[in-house]
Structure formats: C-alpha cells, structure tokens
Amino acid sequence: MSPPGRMCAPRRRGLVPPIVAIASVALAGSAGADSLRLIDTDMPGFDYRHFDLPRSSPRLCQEACFGDETCRAWTFVKAGFYGDAHAACWLKNRVPDVHSDPCCISGSR
C-alpha cells in the first residue's frame, strides 16, 4: 500500500530479473546473517508500519524488521526517490511478491 502522495509507476507482475537476484548481497552481523538484501527490488503490499529513517541506510530498516515479532519482510525506499527528503522503511506482516524497481532495497526474515 502506498502512502498518501507516493506515486508509483505501474508494476509488472512476475519475478525479479536474474540480474537483481545476482546483485543481492548476503548480510553479516547481528541482524539476520542468512537474510538477503534484494537490490533494486520492491515488495509492495502487506504493510503494517512505515517510518522515515534518520539516515539513508537499508540496514536500519532490516534491523527494525528483525526487532519486531510481527515483521516478515521489509522494504527500504531510497531518499528522494518519491520526492521525500528522507529514506523510508516499510515493514510487512507477510512476504509479498518481489518486483524489480530502482526505488528500493528489500528483504525478508
């Protein structure tokens, strides 16, 4: 679900192109060492909470998800992508389908 004022381009249904899957980076550290970051990937839908981030870091969004029992997936929206000055984090209570989109970096638990 898009926030008020967030204009999204029409999305194609389907899986993330192989190039995006290859660009995924394995994470290290306390927040889900076996989780992946899907670069240039949005997971629209199943949002239950969103917030601006104090700095443009997908790791902050991932850590918020791993610190919340309800969260099953997350999407980090890059600063300035939709006209917002701040990067944003969208937490999801289910794992949505993935869609190639340069706006975002996403992941799941």
Description:
The protein is of the alpha+beta class. It has one domain (about 20-109): Hepatocyte Growth Factor. Helices cover about 15% and strands about 30% of the residues. The chain has two helices and six strands; from the N terminus they run αβββαβββ. It has a six-stranded antiparallel beta sheet with strand order 1-2-6-4-5-3. The longest helix is centred in the middle third of the chain and has 9 residues, at about 60-65.
Provide the fold topology.
Layout: H1 18-22, E1 25-26, E2 36-42, E3 47-52, H2 58-66, E4 73-77, E5 88-92, E6 99-108
CATH superfamily: Hepatocyte Growth Factor
**Strand tally:** 6
Biggest sheet statistics? 6 strands, antiparallel
What is the average per-residue confidence, as pLDDT, rounded to a whole number? Answer: 78
Strand order of the largest sheet: 1-2-6-4-5-3
Distance between the termini: 20 Å
Bin the helical content: 10-25%
C-alpha geometry: globular
Strand content: 25-35%
CATH class group: Alpha Beta
Task: Name the structural class.
Answer: alpha+beta
Give the total of domains.
Answer: 1
CATH architecture: 3-Layer(bba) Sandwich
Radius of gyration, in Å, reads 13 Å
Short description:
With 109 residues, the protein is of the alpha+beta class.
Features:
about 15% helix; about 110 residues; Hepatocyte Growth Factor; disordered N terminus; six-stranded antiparallel beta sheet
